[in-house]
Amino acid sequence: MTDTTKMSGRPVISATGLFTPEDSISNEELVASFNEYVRRHNETNAAAIESGQMDALTESSVEFIEKASGIKARHVMAKEPVLDPDVMAPRWPQRSNDELSLLAEIGVKAARQALENAGRKVEDVDAVLCAASNMERPYPAMAIEIQQELGIDGFGFDMNVACSSATFGIQTAADYIRSGNAKSVLVVSPEITSGHLNWRDRDSHFIFGDVATAVLVEDAALAPAQHWDIVGTKLKTVFSNNIRNNFGFLNRAYPEDAEGPDKLFVQEGRKVFKEVVPMVAKMIVDEAERLDIDPQGLRRLWLHQANAGMNRLIAQRVLGHEANEDESPTVLDTYGNTSSAGSIIAFHLHNGDLEAGDTGLICSFGAGYSAGTVFVRKAG
Ligand code: COA
Q: Which residue's CA lies nearest to atom 40 of ligand 1?
């Protein structure tokens, strides 16, 4: 048992974990499947298209996808059905209530890695937050299932702030540490975004990928020597309809409507781009100022991975110059947009080379709108 009288109330990131699905879909594979779907659709509906009752669908292209988003591939939990032009959605066998849920399964894998990287025993962990943009069910909470599987004695709950879920989870965990209500909290973000993506929509079929991340937020007194101090956290939300998913338990009563495209991810991509970039860049600079940090002196930005162009612009506004890969690493090219997990993957894969005293920023943004900043400094 840990001696809680020695706790400092200072939150740190002790370690992170990452689970990456084995299967990956390249843009070439994705576009070949999409274009086959388009060809079949236009052939089947040739008469209606000819008479003007229906619009012909247009093909997608690898060049467009790479230029518009920076994405070259994405990992998925179920490759075959996603690429099958007759299905174009992930499918897996239904699991019984006695089996671990899919979302919990990948969350547990990432969580175990974070615990291992921290050298942490589960007995020391007090809480699990499952912070992600889509939950497998309303209840019992995914977090409680993950807690049970890991054998943690404490509490857990789910939280959803779309692409910002992980940073909102980190601040929530940090607040538990600050208040003394917990000393070790796992923030788990299993993102099976392939389930909310409309793989038949040319404007967005290439955007998302599946993954799970975990962040172990702890009291500094308990943390391993190799950790990141949490210097400050800030959250922001501003309502917008420009990224939306209307799926919910109240609309399941209308079967004819339940599969409609608005029950999946929809967005006004251009508006999102224009409105979110200035909002996030300003938030980062304002928060850096409040924390007495020179934004241009930030050693590294681990930004949400939604779109390469957005990241380029945000990083430029914060750092005052065009950022290179070392200053603002990309994982978008191989992972796609993994919703809340994106900035955590970037942090997980690209923090080992930084020196004690280096300050960096984990930052998320997305639907809501929502945005979260977590300024961190490498301990030494
Ligand atoms: N293949 C080929 N061409 C395509 C295409 C596809 N899959 N999808 C769209 N296009 C074409 C359109 O027909 C349009 O052609 P036109 O100019 O001749 O009319 C052109 O590309 C521009 O379409 P648009 O949808 O405006 O593309 P865009 O350049 O804005 O890029 C996004 C689309 C979604 C990649 C981009 O807006 C974006 O990333 N926005 C940020 C939002 C975001 O990432 N949100 C994720 C949640 S946080």
A: 269
